[in-house]
Amino acid sequence: MPSVLVVDDEPRIADLVRDYLDEVGFAVVVATDGPGALEAFDRHRPDAVILDLGLPGLDGLDVIRRLRARSDVPIVILTARSDETDRVVGLELGADDYVVKPFGLRELVARVRAVLRRVDAAGPSDVHRVVDVVVDVPKMRVTVAGAEVELTATEFQLVATMAEQPGRVFTRGQLLDAVHGVSFESYERAIDAHVKNIRSKIEPDPRKPRYVLTVHGVGYRFADA
Length: 225
Hints:
42% helix, alpha/beta
């Protein structure tokens, strides 16, 4: 049974999400503030985290930073903030997806299941070698010039998708389809945030990328030479 840590300071929402996740087969732990979220994560080591950004004690963005310093656990942001900047910052800090309040419980569960599938997606025994980047799909392992790079599940899925067909141009919508696996409308700038993260980890100079290249007005492609 997969486990989920739900972090929200509104008891009504936390209880609603907990009860629904429990009903559909998840083990659920609830925290109501930032420090409590980190304590609960260290104690229970959940398979995924649903995280509100507007938390007392420690802001949700700071919680993401601290979680990413210790784990690649999938994180779905749950937020009422109308400013898209906070959501993009959350993604750039390493969150995998987000849902905006008010939200549908079915959509939230679908997104949690989607990020968990990315972790479990061993897939066929494929190893992609492009330039000096090696993407080992079954092991979810990426090396650059022989050095292993730590990517989140979403970042890995994006790299694997593009590296499987080097040189092919992917639109942001196609990349969203590849990583989400759900039909709900998503925010395409999320892809830009993930790509920015990927470049910071795999590029010798993120300002002059060698591997993940921008195709202006269209999307991205992985270098083929």
